[in-house]
Amino acid sequence: MTKRRRRAARDAGHLLISAGLGLAAQGLLPLTAFALLLCLLPPLGGPVLGFVVRLTRRLADTQRRRIGPRIPSPYAGPPGRIREILAEAAFWRDAGWLAGQAVACFVAMLVVALWPAGLQGFVIPLLYLLLPADLELVFQGMPVTSTPRSLIAVPLGVVLLVAAYFAPRAFRAGEARLARRLLTPTAAARLSARVEQLVETRTAVVDASAAELRRIERDLHDGAQARLVALTMNLGMAEDMFDSDPGAARAMLADARAGAHSAMSELRDLVRGIHPPMLADRGLVGAAEALAMASPVPVDLDLRLGRRLSAPVESAAYFVLAEALANAIKHAVATRITMSIVDEEVRLRLRVRDDGRGGADGSLGTGLRGIARRLGAFDGTVTVTSPTGGPTEVEAVLPCGS
């Protein structure tokens, strides 16, 4: 019974929200018509139409989020000029949805009204006995003029209550069908959004590659190259002083040897930053185990990957895990971290979860944005869940083929 009451409450809430959207649609329909008339006066019609379109998009996006599974938004950007708006299929489809939702508002209110109408049927016999005989009593258009007629209201009330319980399902199905038919992006809109996404992804990858090349150049110039120059100078000075001052020459050779070791170490670290040797030798699982062992915070591993992936995918997955783990260690004040790799055949799911203080925001730091840019090159996605007080979970999905 409790489950049924909860379901009835959810249905009632859904109907009320649908009615509210329908009322807003009823207000936007005449505004849209007025804005289209104003388009005959472009200096005035353009801003008004843009304002109405923004309101309509916001209302339509609200409906897209309510329908399961969620419908993607077809809009490539903010409203443009009058000619661009009128040429968009999404504008006219949204207008059609407004008309449909305006009608759905009346249906939703009718379905909601079934509950009080059904309950009224149970009290009609009592009202007939208690109210004065000269007072006209009507139930759903049926005059109640006798005791048998008042009793007929009871089974009618039962029918109305049964309809009130099951009608929301039919309403939700019809509303979802309407939304999917009109609010789902067309093939052309999906193709346009896909092209725009690929352009943005390509630009981000090119920028990231250029930044990485500049970093490598800077590290080589300031680190290994400087040490090699000093090493060359020490060797030359040692060669000049070898006959006149063998002791000083030996000291310079020792310094040169130490400088060579330092340069080799820096080159090794630089190469490891480009492609870790552990990743090439032992694959993603071994590299993840090495990350966990090097972490100052205890890391629990859930590694469900039994095959080697392509080198670019492994590299991207490794750096996602490394960045997410570094963020958890540096910012989360965590006492325990869980890192998982799950092979789902066509995609790789990566998770890093910590029990820290939460509050991570990808818009405030470069680490999470870097993860998103790295995954964007592979059509991957990253989701960050980090309520204040924790826990924080970074989940990345990376297509990897079957």
UniProtKB/TrEMBL annotation:
CDD domains: HATPase_UhpB-NarQ-NarX-like (cd16917)
Claim: Magnesium is one of the keywords in the record: no
Gene Ontology molecular function terms on file: kinase activity
Keyword field contains Amino-acid biosynthesis: no
Enzyme kind, highest EC tier: transferase
InterPro entries membership: HATPase_C_sf, HATPase_dom, Put_sensor_dom, Sensor_HK_TwoCompSys, Sig_transdc_His_kin_sub3_dim/P
Residue ranges the record marks as coiled coil: none
Record keywords, A-Z: ATP-binding, Kinase, Membrane, Nucleotide-binding, Phosphoprotein, Transferase, Transmembrane, Transmembrane helix, Two-component regulatory system
Catalyzed reaction equations: ATP + protein L-histidine = ADP + protein N-phospho-L-histidine
Transmembrane region(s): 12-29, 35-56, 103-131, 151-171
EC number(s) from the headed UniProt entry: 2.7.13.3
Ranges where the Histidine kinase/HSP90-like ATPase domain occurs: 312-402
Protein name: histidine kinase
Species in which this protein is naturally found: Plantactinospora solaniradicis
Species classification: Bacteria, Bacillati, Actinomycetota, Actinomycetes, Micromonosporales
